[in-house]
Amino acid sequence: MTDTQTPAAKPFTTIIGLEVHVQLQTQTKLFCGCSTTFGSPPNTQVCPTCLGLPGSLPVMNRQAFALALRAALALDCTIAPFTKWDRKNYFYPDLPKGYQISQYDLPFSSAGVLEVVDPKEAVSRRVGIVRVHLEEDAGKSMHDESAGTADSRIDLNRAGTPLCEIVTEPDLRSPQEARAWLNELKLLLVYLGVSDCNMQEGSLRVDANVNLHIPRADGSLAKTPIVEIKNMNSFRSVERALIYEVVRQWEDWQATGAELGSAPKQTRGWDDPAGITRAQRAKEESSDYRYFPEPDLVPVTVSAEQIAAIRAAMGDPPAVLRQALADTWKISAYDSDVLVNQGRDLVAYFEELATLTGDGKVASNWMQQDVLRTLNERGGTVAEFPVRPAAVAEIIGRITRGDFDTSRGREIFATVLETGTSVADAVTGLGITAVGDDELEALCRELLAANPKIVADVQGGKEQAAAGLIGQAKKKNPNVNPGKVRATCLELIRQIG
Amino acid sequence: MSLSRQEVAKVGMLARLALTEAELEKMTGELSKLVEFVSQLSELDTAAVEPLAHPLETRNVFREDIPAASLTTEQALANSPRHDNSCFLVPAVLGDSGAA
Amino acid sequence: MQPLQLSALDLVGAVKRGDLSAVACVEAYLDRIVAVDGRINAFLAVGREPALAQAAKIDVRRKAGKPLGALAGLPVAVKDALCTTDLPTTCASKMLAGYQPPYDADVVARLRRADAVIVGKTNMDEFAMGGSNENSAFGPVHNPWDLNRAPGGSSGGSAACVAADMAPVAIGSDTGGSIRQPAGLCGITGFKPTYGRISRRGLVAFASSLDQIGPMAHSAADCALLMETIAGHDPGDATSLTDPVPAYGQLLGEPLAGLRIGRVAEHFGAGLDPEVARGIESAFDTFRAAGATIHDVELPHARYGIPTYYLIAPCEASSNLARYDGAHYGHRHRAEPGREADQVGQFESPLVEMYCRSRAEGFGPEVKRRVMLGTYALSAGYYEAFYAKALRVRRLIQRDYFEAFAKVDLIAGPVSPTPAFKLGEKTGDPLAMYLVDMYTVGTNLAGIGGISFPCGFTPGGLPIGFQLQGPALAEPLLLRAAHGFQSLTDWHTRRPALSA
Hints:
The structure holds three protein chains of three kinds. By secondary structure, chain A is of the alpha+beta class. Chain A is built from 16 helices and 18 strands. In chain A, strands 1, 3, 7, 8, 11, 12, 13, 14, 15 and 16 form a ten-stranded mixed β-sheet that branches. A three-stranded antiparallel β-sheet of chain A has the order 6-5-17, with no helix packed on it. A two-stranded antiparallel sheet of chain A has the order 4-18. Chain A starts with 12 loop residues before the first strand and ends with a helix. Chain B is mainly alpha-helical. Helix content of chain B is 33%, strand content 6%. Chain B has three helices and two strands, in the order ααβαβ. By secondary structure, chain C is an alpha/beta fold. Chain C has a domain at 3-258 and 474-493: Amidase signature (AS) domain (Amidase signature (AS) enzymes, Alpha-Beta Complex). In chain C, helix 2 runs antiparallel to helix 3 (48-63). The radius of gyration of chain C is 22 Å and the shape is globular. Chain A binds chain C through residues 48, 51-60, 87, 89, 91, 93, 96-99, 150, 154, 156, 284, 288, 290-292, 295-298, and chain C through 82-83, 89, 91, 96, 99, 101-103, 105, 200-205, 207-209, 235-239, 315-316, 318-319, 321-323, 325, 327-329, 348, 350-352, 355, 375, 378-380, 383, 387.
């Protein structure tokens, strides 16, 4: 069941806020020089600092702070001129120091916004960002039921990895919107080189907070208790989990009328195979983290000059790029969106192609139908893609000149892609030569002779019947230009009378 | 300023310290006395005074994002009470994570 | 040549010239340890073979004319709170019995690079929490001046070891007086430099914003020698100072005339033993005679030092000691199935039980008290009233010092309210024990430097300690003032009558 309430009689409003953790794309951890490479054998990227050994000390990674600043600026946040770190104290085996170094009351940034625009819909939503702060990740605990032991295995490779925690205001209004917003956030952060936002590798994690606002008959507003949903492993899971949870809360409210404040905030885990959220075991008392300023780290000050320098070096975010592309190359918002969503490198490729051909629309079509399609089939990056913009531009140019038609052009493209030859060689190799007017006329006469019915149809006024001759013409000679075949056949039929 | 046994027991759990009944009794008395002692700070008016978390004014200390040698797995596990040569072993961790 | 009679400076000079082999030097001290430590219990671990092997290598290099480090052949004892790769690091706790760090503390690495020979790890109050070295899980340390008395703490082992000539120098750590107070009770010189002057990397943390490492020796000159090696910036410690390290040894000789010394009336109130007070006054006389001037200064918030310290330190400690939970290293409770069936319901999971029992078994009573106090003071609803409040009072205390140092160069006074007290005398009352730090906690709270050295003896033959405190980075001034005093007196040359 989906959130398909008719706009006219919506019984409730869905209120969603997200808490996103992104791992920053640094070489080393936040407080030590251990590598952050994903997927290494357990406990091979650890040192006294991230193991929390006695006497170990943390030192802040300059690049991590720089990337965090970049992310916050791109999210339009206010950067605090003075920031510090705090200890969040709790006991857990994946947290070897018994505390996480995080930020509590003076995070380095706050009060931002990230808008999500779905070009298919008219709705755009400005989602407020409460804060972005910088903290260290914990390690991993693994429990293998099948091994039959009562133990958990702890791998501390991930402990100490730099994380940005991004907390939104509860401004999202539907599960679909939440998913779209996450896609926008990922695109932005990937564009900035801040994180690769790969949920499968754990470099982006999401928890969602959701409740319903239900207008009562008397005009007052009932609010269901807020539920925090955890354990969603993809953006699609986030959407599905929220869809499920909205229904569950609506049904629960109708059954019990329980409202916000009547019980402590509930945490529920998303079970993807089962497609449901499950209440997690309620804790006896809510955690008391006993935050206090981290004495081993000194505070950090950020100047207006620093902020200006980062802004200048950042490059345009996707939202700005989308508009710029559409305006500059006269392509539709939809096309621009498709291109920008593929990342900076593809946009650069497109822009080079559009410049060479002088036609943004044609370039955009070739990008979507040919470049992107084959790129996705083959895998690999845009930088590695064997067909360069100059080659595509050459093909497009020759099609425009009439050397061959678009479908032949595609064959040339495929040949260049597979064999790495030049466009000219591919043309020769495929035996593409221009068809002379005499040859064309002879061919058409042949076709007309063989297709009396089509001739009769055209003479009867159905010009479009001539289209049936094109396929046959191409079979006899693939080099013919469909447009010229049609025109020549029609002319000949006219001459017949 | 007296602490109740219940409060002290709660602190004991926060601090992950098992206390016998006798220890809880003794600790309640000792902590109450200590808390009363440190509470004399409330005599001072500090409304206009900023907290001093770091004795010195140092700011902006960073390290470069350059990899340094890590320990071997063997070294990392060398002092571990239980391990399987790859990971630390602890009594099973239940489904939810430690932090809220 | 009698190595046990020589200063560190003389020993280092003798080894360098070839007048004394490193092996002979180190062996003399190792033998002394064997002879007397049974009565003192200053050492938790002695590395005889590695020390002699290292000394032998130094002798070979010296004979081959190869360059030697500045401390070549010098035996050094290191408090067991500093990480050493070749000797266990226990912090005198059952929690870390047998723990072997995979890295050396920065100070230890510097000592090794300077070719000093680390002979062993010294006893201490558990996790540096205490003022008498009676909180060790491995037995108390006995004061060499009177074996029935405490040496002070928490660096009691380091202080006793130097006093009894088991090492010419030792490294201690000082969070609220833990170098200066035991130095005072043991008749030696102990130096806590400005916070950040020496790297804390590899010092097992007690209270991170207060801890500092420092040298302990028979003289300020020997302390200066050590300081030249162990002080300096460490990029691995974010609180480490980048200021260049002066050549402390070369700055010792400046005269005392003109030095303005502050005397704090609050220090001389009730609680100060009259014999100690007499010794302190005579020290002031010595400074006056040398041309220094004594001025009355105020530290109006001095009496709030102990409660401030006993909030900040336990709070930070409660967090620093959370890592000792039996999960990744250290003592882990051995579950005995059946025995605890009646306790099973008490803990929410086997994991939590492991934490709670491991820590209960691994920590001694004083550590538990401070962890509990710190946890309480940081907990929800109490943070503002306790920890945050203490941080504000800390600023007031620091301000007092700033204002005082606008009028005087150094502040002088007692380091301990009494001479060495009897073992067991204060262990029944935690608060009584905390008050032994009354003259020393202010230094750590303000982040400034302090040095203590002997200024006399009680009629009963117990050392009386004198303390100088200076503004931030006043190490050269503190060392030269102490050295100046030691040029005019011989208290620091006295030795306890310990028969070998």
